[in-house]
From TrEMBL:
UniProt protein name: Asparaginase
InterPro entries given in the database record: Asparaginase_II
Species lineage: Bacteria, Bacillati, Actinomycetota, Actinomycetes, Propionibacteriales
Amino acid sequence: MTTEAAFPDVSTRTAAPLAHVVRGDLVESVHLGHLVALAADGTPVLTLGDPEVTMWPRSSVKPFQAVAMVRHGLDLPERLMALAAASHNGEPDHIAGALAILARAGLDERALRNTPDLPWGTTAMRDWLESGQGPEQISQNCSGKHAAMLLTCVTAGWDTETYLAPDHPLQRAVRETIGELTGVPVTHETVDGCGAPLFATTVTGLARGFGRLAASPQQAPDSAEARVAHAMSTHPHMVAGGQRPTTTLMRAVPGLVAKDGADGIFAAGLPDGRAVAFKVLDGAERPLAPVLVTALDALGAFAGDGVDHEAVESLRERAVLGAGRAVGAIRAAF
């Protein structure tokens, strides 16, 4: 395991403003970070900060983890495949889906090794608590991924007790797949919040991977990448849930594949291979949607047919409230 001190400098020395928080007529706060937008051929169209910085991509790499699983036998209907790449709200269909994946493996929730937690979504959490339940593994936002990992192990004949060990065949496959799709050799690893191994990459590598993933249904329709990408873009609610920018954007833009990650990560790819990825340096969630929409706009992502422009515009700014009413906005700084 590598300490933070061994990482390249990700401080304000190399970061650039990604978002402004405006209250009244003054900029109240600034969110710094690193961002890249790539053309279909992988050429940078927009760079802010240092996109070559090494960082933890967190849950944004769940689609890549799902690709590794499909390559080793994971076979699910599209709705459940989308859940395998999800950071879900813990809504009833999410929990039912995770249980259904486990059932396909002949297992139940006792086989899960992810960290117990309450549902992520506000309404789902309230309903869960009102039903008398507390933090559980099945209600944690990564339960779909963990259920899919267990099904992959059963299918491949791998041990299910140790599926989170870094040297487990499943996790070695995930590491190899992340390095392949991002084009960046994995040189750092740690443990994510759910307990799964987490492999570092760069902002550019993350964008490159999402471009390849989103383009795969057209370029390699029979590939594992295409199965995951099509499932996500077709069933965005299973990837996130209600009131989530990830869901809204994938519904609004045909073929878009998008995934958020904890501590200020977002990445998205378009069907022709254009892609965006960024890291908000302070780990804040509040500027993610405005920054992503503005970066996708720089790529011309909303110029095609079938785009729900009203839904896109609803994410371009986030209101700053005073006495319960909008007195400013969080908006991209570029």
